[in-house]
Amino acid sequence: MINKDAIFALLRSEFEYSMRKRRNHLMSLAAIIITLFFIIYTYLAGGLSEVFTGYLYVKDEYLWTILLYSSALFLYLLGIFIGADVFPHDIEEGYVDTLYTLPSTRIDLFIGKLVGGYLSLITYIMIIEAIIATTIYIIFQVSIDFIILLGITSGFALASLVFYTISIYLGIRMRSWIHVTLFSLSILLISPFTEYLLYGLGLSNYSIIEVLSNLLPHRPLEIPISIVYSLIEAGEIPKGLIDPVTGLIIIALYTLVFTSISASKFIEADFI
Amino acid sequence: MEVTYIMRVIQARGVTRRFSGIPVLEGLSLDVAGGDVYGLYGMPEAGKTILIKMMLDIISRDGGILKIFNMDPSIHRRDVLLRTGYTPQDPRYPDWFTLQHIIKLKRETYNRENMDVFLKYLRDFGLWKHRDRRIMQLNIKYRKALVFLSTLTHDPELIIIDEVSDIPGDIMEEVIGEFRGRKTFFISSHDLDKLGLYVKRIGFINEGRIVYEGTVNQLKKMLSDTVVLIKISEARRDIWQKINRLEGIEDLSIKDRILRIRITSDTGVINNIRQILKGHKIEIKWIKWMGKREEDDK
Q1: What is the pLDDT along chain B (298 residues), one digit of tens a residue?
Q2: Do A271 and B88 lie within an 8 Å CB cutoff?
Q3: CB proximity under 8 Å: B 102-161 to A
Q4: CA distance linking residue B75 with residue B69, whole number of Å
Q5: What one-character DSSP code corresponds to residue B263?
Q6: Cβ-based neighbour number of residue B5 at 10 Å
Q7: What are the two backbone dihedrals, phi and then psi, of residue B187, each rounded to the nearest 5 degrees?
Q8: How far apart, in whole angstroms, are the C-alpha atoms of residue A201 and residue A185?
Q9: Which of B88, B92, B109 shows the shortest C-beta gap to A9?
Q10: Which residues sit opposite B231 in a β-bridge?
């Protein structure tokens, strides 16, 4: 039986640890600075509508694209960094003897730490997006609709969940923060191949040329974008993007698979 | 006729564990009855901490039976931990943790507290002033004392202390004196003299199994005039000479980074050797007690 008191205590401890971690502060700061740099550069280059001539999107919509593309990579990295730290830091720092000997089952322990880390990731994303949205408003006098901002944040939070859970799994297997981070980064880099595979299975509407020309780390970022666009365009699937439903299914499957195997590994793991 | 039933709080039968094929525990068996103050003595790396971590389900076992309160900790983890208070060898918490955080965490997870005894000890031993200090900024002596006393807040039936020598003696004596017969203590150390201050019954763990159980004095007699092997990371002549000058050591030799020493008095000298090696940043890989020299020679 699940003990919610133990889960909550461990969740709070993990959340607080992650929110205090300087490495996560630096990554969030980098996401904010890079995004703001793009926004200011665009502004100095002569305004949004001129810079983005030829694109299908209207001025306001493109703000989101800037926001998404420039900060997204850092947000995924944040997902990897937090996920990679959840279990290895307990072993590396020696908290196992104190935190893992509280009266809880291993499942309580796993849930508490998994959810605690993930809540901190969502909190970071919300703070970053809020700072960026405020800056956009100050510079361009264009406000992003609250619902759209919520959609963007939810999209990132969901997509980061994939990288977060991959890192959690690797963290239980490897016990070394740096090894987990390197492995997760390599997964982030090769993930466009997943899209290619989906295309082959008829689940993606990419053409091979488009896929091959876009074998870059930013490709998986389009999963949350598709979710946002589906919110905006009321079900009309944008060309060149993965079907939002498929995107959600991919995220759900990735998360489910990695969380399940992480839990099974955690239950039989030695914490030394 | 009144029948007195003494419950076995800890029961181990043939417990085994290997790490990368190397045996750490090899058929370890022991019994600790309720209300007992049991000491587990062993050289560093003998398997004391591994056994304790198995009792708390931090490490799994390869084979054998291990029961705490007649429950397997790997199955009834929560139930076992609810009734157990554990002081680790080096208790570590996140940087910002103060004693208040530890108490709060315990209050949330144990759902019961007995603060009176804990607060009394904090005041009696002058530890109250440290309550708001960050626990990791305290030295190991105070940190361990605070963590040890904080285990009393959930009124555990079994108190496990890994390496008792770091906890101030007056605190240990007071707590054991207060709860002797009412709580079970399982105390480990590599310092036989320190352990001897608190326990009457002692188990000696060597190469992953209990090789002796009895009184401290008997164990001291058994350990005198015996051979000890110490595997070190680096063999240096100057260190060898320093060790050779220690009292209570004879027939020092070194081969393949293994120090072979005959101890003539008691194993307290092992701690002196550890200090010398630590001072020169030489790592001890393992220490093995080889028994009487005659047996070793055979």
Answers
A1: 444 455 889 999 999 999 888 889 999 999 999 999 999 998 878 889 999 999 999 999 999 999 999 999 999 999 999 999 999 999 999 989 998 888 888 888 887 777 888 888 888 988 888 888 999 999 888 899 999 999 998 899 999 999 998 899 999 999 999 998 899 999 999 888 889 999 988 999 988 899 999 998 888 888 878 888 888 888 777 787 788 888 878 878 888 888 888 887 666 777 788 888 888 888 888 888 887 755 544 4
A2: no
A3: 102, 105-106, 108-111, 147
A4: 12
A5: E
A6: 5
A7: -120, 130
A8: 25
A9: B109
A10: B258, B286
Task: Name the phi and psi angles at B175, rounded to 5.
Answer: -70, -45
Distance from CA of B193 to the nearest CA of A (A): 26
What's the rounded Cα separation, in Å, for the pair A60 and A137?
11
Inter-chain residue contact B82 with A103, CB threshold 8 Å: yes
**Predicted structure pTM score:** 0.82
In this complex, do A268 and B91 lie within 8 Å of one another by their Cβ atoms? no
- ipTM for this model: 0.84
Contact residues on chain A for B111, CB-CB shorter than 8 A: 5
Chain A residue numbers touching B86 (CB-CB < 8 A): 97, 101
Q: How close is the nearest chain A Cα to the Cα of B136, in Å?
A: 11
Q: What angle in degrees, to the nearest 10, is found between the helix axes of A59-86 and A22-44? A: 160
